[in-house]
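B., you asked whether I could sanity-check this one before it goes into the benchmark set. Here's the sequence:
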Amino acid sequence: MAKLHLHLLSDSTGETLEMIAKAALAQFDDSDIKRHFWPMVRSRQHLDRTIDEFKANPGLVLYTLVNADIREQLEERCRALGIDHADALETITEALEKQLGQAAKGRPGRQHKMDAAYFARVDAIQFTIAHDDGIGWENWEEADIVLAGVSRTSKTPTSIYLANRGFKVANIPLVVESPPPDTLYRLKHPMVVGLTTAPQRLVQIRRNRLLSLNENTETSYVDEERVKNEVAFARRMFADNSWPVIDVTRRSIEETAAAVIRIYQEREGRDVPPAVGPKPI
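And here's what the prediction gave me:
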């Protein structure tokens, strides 16, 4: 049985990367794959911490990295270590064939899945990764959906989920001290959706985030009164611009994405199946 250490490295949540890797691995039988997951790699320092694991468990590195500098650093380090690597948004089948010592199975019907819808979905994923967290605001007009909300309102994972459904999504964090670019208010094509949540729940999520990063949990970032002001600031912005709002307090990412899709379909005048479970808004 072929064995492989598969390192999945992403500068986002990594959901897209996992999906692509899983789809490619389905073509190989009798293989022992040990996956190592490295999400949110956005700095050289973070990249450096992954290299030791590559040395200890050499195999294949698959990555989705928007930042050209980080990507080049990764490729350079992999070449120096003699470790195979591949951009997961390009073809990865050849790299897996080499590592596993077997040819990809030409299963019936697979070639027909590489249709226009498939490539549109890949394009949506690439766009969404490149427009995370307020990046690339100059291109927001090309988006289908723009998600806006204060920090930790599940904008990024919801964006990635929607991208996997074929929507080009940009998202922007709303910060009281740093108003968003005027472009946000002048968008014609994209649908802007506001994401909000209960302040108490938001404080809890932020505290857990700081704890996971070994950061001081007594900062203004988790001050309840300040968080209430942030949420109120965002809600006023949503109301002033007549943007639809989704409360994510008790919603999973899938439920939030389903609510966004329903609003989008209604905006586009499409037939929408009856809602199941809680109302989307």
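One thing to flag: Residues 2-100 form a domain with the Rossmann fold fold (CATH 3.40.50.2300). Otherwise nothing jumped out at me.
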